[in-house]
Hints:
The protein is an alpha/beta fold. Helix content is about 35%, strand content about 25%. The protein is built from 13 helices and 17 strands. Strands 7, 8, 9, 10, 11, 12, 13, 14, 15, 16 and 17 form an eleven-stranded mixed β-sheet that branches. A six-stranded parallel β-sheet has the order 3-2-1-4-5-6, with helices on both faces. β14 and β15 (about 370) form a beta hairpin. α5 (about 100-115) runs parallel beside α10. The longest helix has 18 residues, at about 100-115. The radius of gyration is 22 Å and the shape is globular. It binds L-homoserine. L-homoserine binds near residues 129, 156, 184, 185 and 297.
Amino acid sequence: MVKAAILGFGTVGSGVEEVLRTNAALIERRAGTAVTVKYILDIRDFSGTPFENVVIRDFERIENDPEISVVIETIGGARAAYDFTRRALAAGKSVVTSNKELVATHGAELLALAREKNVNYLFEASVGGGIPILRPMLQCLTANRIEEVTGILNGTTNFILTKMLEENVSFDAALRDAQTRGYAERDPSADVDGLDACRKTAILADLAYGREVCPDAIETEGIRGVTLEDAENASRAGCAIKLLGRSILREDGRIWAFVAPHFVPKTEMLANVTGVFNAIRVTGDAVGDVLFYGQGAGKLPTASAVVADVVDAVKHREVRRVLSWEPAPVSDTQDAAPYVADLADMPCAFYVRGEAGDAFGRCERLSADALITQVMPTGEFREKIAALRASGREIHSVFRVL
Ligand code: HSE
């Protein structure tokens, strides 16, 4: 029998306990041994609940208990979670997590520590919630050079955008609804300002291209600027609006990586991913496009991915899962040729709402004040927008077109 400890008994942690308990028999069959929860670490009071006998407040008990071989970190954030993860790995315990902030910022270091201690650090649930994406990308697509990863990586923002586009619901009302359903992060700005999608974009790029991408190097724009007027224009253009996290391999071996709202033509499968669902399109040089789709947030979908990693960790106690990437290249800390390249020369078409006049030449007109440009380098587009604004023209919204 394997004994596990859950750190943090919030939405995801309690979902993990529920899945381990509800599906105990099949998990035992698949893991080859029963998996039980010996401790739950949480600072809140659980007396009078079924968990009162396993809830503890002192991490040292877990760290020093040789019976615990798997630690499930669902605290989130990069403070206590970072400390506990390092200590658990150092104590020779495998760690499984859904914590994208920690993986995106300290993943390389924690993977190196896991390698040194011959244990596993697994984080399938950190990207795409319940969608199997990291392991399939690494294993099933391993024959490919990955050329692009583009995804709807945040359920809360996709839920909000879907409500705005399909039901004409205001941003605030849709956000409240998402929070009530337990999709949103504790601080919803991590969702609506794109930070959560940025961290997931970093993890995907780390694994897809094998080099650490610092989330700070990823230009990130959230969805606060999307209005109901933009939603109407998107419908006119035959598009949905989606917050996309993208990384694209350039010919020189560097990458573009960014998070931004996009107009996505309805002919693209990504445009039809609605509500809290996420989807990640991976483009490989041999396979072409592959789309991974499912619930990207929520208690049980996320727990599904966490528990799958627990089973994997249990089954691979003797053989470590090979999961790693190179540390960030030194050039990222200098001015010259950073690995995450400037977007200036990235070609793209843009949606513009405002007083653009005929600044963009031939373009698709959507209404008196909205248009879609031809494909042009991002830098050239930005210069034109800056010039329009400098001359006193009002430009309300600017989004990329996929
Ligand atoms: N707040 C996140 C989302 C949860 O809405 O997608 C899953 O990471």
